[in-house]
Design brief:
105 residues; extended; disordered C terminus; 4 strands; 1 helix; four-stranded mixed sheet; alpha+beta
């Protein structure tokens, strides 16, 4: 999951429902249970080991190299039910802002 504002609001609740500890803004993965993240406004780096069987994490997107654009096995398919150029919106029609304009979900 990315570290965008709506997910930062939902992540702790989602993790609580699963009875696990959330791990936010990871910048590296050193094993199945070990994650790297920054602390103190990015001035220090720490390693976190999670003993939970399910991991709920957000990833700092700039910490990893971009995926290669060729060589994958994925396919591109045309969607149904939308006109060309039309964008689908789920849930909140106003984007990320809630009715108070504070960016919540």
């Amino acid at each position: 999951m990315c570290s965008c504002l709506p997910l930062q609001n939902i992540l702790p609740r989602f993790a609580a429902k699963l009875d696990v500890a959330p791990i936010s803004d990871i910048t590296g993965i050193e094993g199945e249970d070990v994650f790297v993240r920054t602390i103190y406004a990015g001035n220090a780096v720490t390693r976190i080991k999670s003993k939970d069987s399910v991991k709920v994490v957000t990833v700092r997107g700039t910490a990893f190299p971009p995926a290669e654009e060729t060589g994958g096995s994925g396919t591109v398919e045309d969607g149904e039910g939308r006109e060309e150029g039309e964008v689908g919106v789920r849930g909140n029609e106003g984007g990320c802002d809630d009715e108070r304009g504070k960016g919540g979900v």
